[in-house]
């Protein structure tokens, strides 16, 4: 239950009862009283987090918004080099840099005029990119917390932001059906990739940095040459997706892209040929997330059908089906371990053993759907963000 606001407390003043207000006296047996230990257990059960970040509020400049969404969190990124450093962004038009275990330290990322939809650290950890529905990407110097530059170009909101695996090149997909690439050091536009006919919902560089893959609400996957801007392949039509793409991931050897879509289908595409080489059919609702295991030939998909499915890519068959209480919104593998986590519409974060398919831990604490997950650089912590306006940190060191 929410605490009364400051104004309510002032209005109430002190409250007195006289004998005429007492309707009925009830004798309470000591056995009826809750045990203090029971209360502590209930509290512990309700929130398993070791750190809560509440810097995102439903106000701007101290003035509350009417819209509830203004405090919701949409994106989280853990630094690849500093195990304590986290970036979060959401509906209050802000991002924050903060540190696990240092509740009194935070740097506010200001300047966006709409929700912060995507955050990403450069692979050397030096820079942070913040993408917003205002169509802008801001580049931040992580060590100082100062803005380094603003990247402009798209006429629609930013759906996602990615960094080149070895340099300070930024790639972003927009609601206006375009994909843009910039040099972040110089805040200079390098290329625009045009061809999609609807919002570009997902995309990335291949790990070797030589190719770009993008997925769109137009139900196509496009494969691009980053240097020339040439559209090398368009993947569409039977046997590919019939509805908009929602997510993609690329194999570590840069040969395969796995894509998920609203039509509940998952397809594996050979990037060099642009051909669909396999289809993974088992879900019955929109695919929300996909991730390839870093150390085994397995992949994981999460869907609004309340299932996480672990796939053996060698046989294109399900290894395990992991049931949830509600739709699965996001997933992340824990480095090279066999464990992965899912975020769910029910507000729970669950840890799964991909070998057995068992849920080995359920983290409680959030009260609304989980939107994004990220693992700290040392793999000791998992950070989740939710529509409940909080980021929570859970210990995962035991799942190495």
Short description:
The chain is mainly β.
* CATH architectural designation of the domain at 40-62 and 71-169: 7 Propeller
Mean pLDDT: 90
Instruction: Write down the CATH topology of the domain at 40-62 and 71-169.
Output: Methylamine Dehydrogenase, Chain H
Strand content: over 45%
Percent helix range: under 10%
Structural class: mainly beta
The biggest sheet amounts to:
4 strands, antiparallel
Rg of Cα set? 23 Å
CATH homologous superfamily of the domain at 40-62 and 71-169, by name? YVTN repeat-like/Quinoprotein amine dehydrogenase
Give the termini separation. 37 Å
Oligomer: single chain
Order the strands across the largest sheet as they lie in space. 1-34-33-32
Regarding CATH, which class of the domain at 40-62 and 71-169?
A: Mainly Beta
Low-confidence stretches: 1-34, 36-44, 59-68
Give me the count of strands: 34
Count of runs of 4 or more consecutive helical residues: 2
**Which overall shape is indicated by the principal axes computed on the Cα atoms?**
globular
List the helices and strands and how they pair.
Blueprint lengths: L5 H7 L23 H11 L4 E3 L5 E2 L2 E2 L8 E6 L6 E6 L4 E5 L2 E8 L6 E6 L5 E6 L4 E5 L5 E5 L6 E6 L5 E6 L4 E5 L4 E6 L6 E6 L6 E5 L4 E4 L6 E5 L9 E6 L5 E6 L4 E5 L4 E6 L6 E6 L5 E6 L3 E6 L4 E7 L4 E6 L5 E6 L4 E5 L5 E5 L6 E6 L5 E6 L4 E5 L5
Antiparallel strand pairs: 1-34, 2-3, 4-5, 5-6, 6-7, 8-9, 9-10, 10-11, 12-13, 13-14, 14-15, 16-17, 17-18, 18-19, 20-21, 21-22, 22-23, 24-25, 25-26, 26-27, 28-29, 29-30, 30-31, 32-33, 33-34
């Amino acid at each position: 239950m929410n605490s009364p606001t400051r104004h309510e407390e002032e209005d109430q003043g002190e409250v007195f009862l006289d004998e005429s207000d007492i309707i009925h006296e009830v004798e309470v047996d000591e056995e009826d009283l809750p045990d203090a230990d029971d209360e502590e257990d209930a509290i512990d059960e309700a929130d398993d987090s070791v750190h809560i970040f509440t810097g995102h509020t439903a106000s701007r400049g101290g003035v509350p918004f009417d819209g509830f969404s203004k405090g919701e969190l949409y994106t989280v990124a853990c630094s690849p080099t500093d195990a304590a450093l986290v970036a979060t962004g959401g509906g209050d038009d802000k991002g924050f840099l903060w540190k696990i275990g240092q509740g009194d330290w935070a740097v506010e990322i200001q300047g966006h005029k709409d929700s912060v939809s995507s955050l990403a650290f450069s692979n050397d950890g030096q820079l942070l990119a913040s993408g917003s529905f205002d169509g802008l990407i801001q580049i931040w110097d992580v060590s100082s917390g100062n803005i380094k530059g603003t990247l402009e170009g798209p006429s629609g909101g930013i759906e996602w932001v990615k960094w080149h695996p070895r340099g300070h090149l930024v790639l972003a997909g927009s609601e206006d059906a375009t994909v843009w690439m910039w040099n972040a050091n110089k805040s200079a536009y390098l290329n625009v990739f045009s061809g999609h006919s609807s919002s570009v919902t997902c995309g990335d560089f291949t790990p070797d940095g030589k190719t770009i893959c993008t997925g769109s609400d137009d139900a196509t996957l496009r494969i691009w040459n980053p240097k020339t801007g040439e559209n090398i392949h368009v993947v569409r039509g039977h046997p590919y997706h019939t509805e908009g793409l929602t997510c993609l991931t690329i194999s570590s050897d840069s040969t395969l892209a796995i894509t998920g879509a609203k039509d509940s289908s998952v397809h594996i595409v050979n990037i060099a040929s642009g051909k669909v080489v396999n289809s993974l059919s088992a879900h019955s609702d929109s695919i929300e997330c996909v991730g390839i295991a870093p150390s085994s030939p397995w992949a994981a998909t999460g869907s609004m059908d309340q299932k996480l499915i672990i796939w053996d890519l060698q046989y294109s068959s399900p290894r395990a089906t992991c049931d949830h209480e509600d739709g699965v919104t996001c997933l992340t593998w824990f480095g090279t371990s066999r464990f992965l986590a899912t975020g769910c519409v029910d507000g729970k974060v669950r840890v799964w053993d991909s070998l057995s398919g068992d849920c080995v831990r359920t983290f409680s604490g959030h009260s609304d759907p989980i939107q994004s997950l990220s693992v700290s650089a040392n793999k000791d912590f998992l950070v989740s963000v939710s529509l409940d306006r909080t980021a929570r940190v859970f210990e995962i060191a035991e799942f190495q």
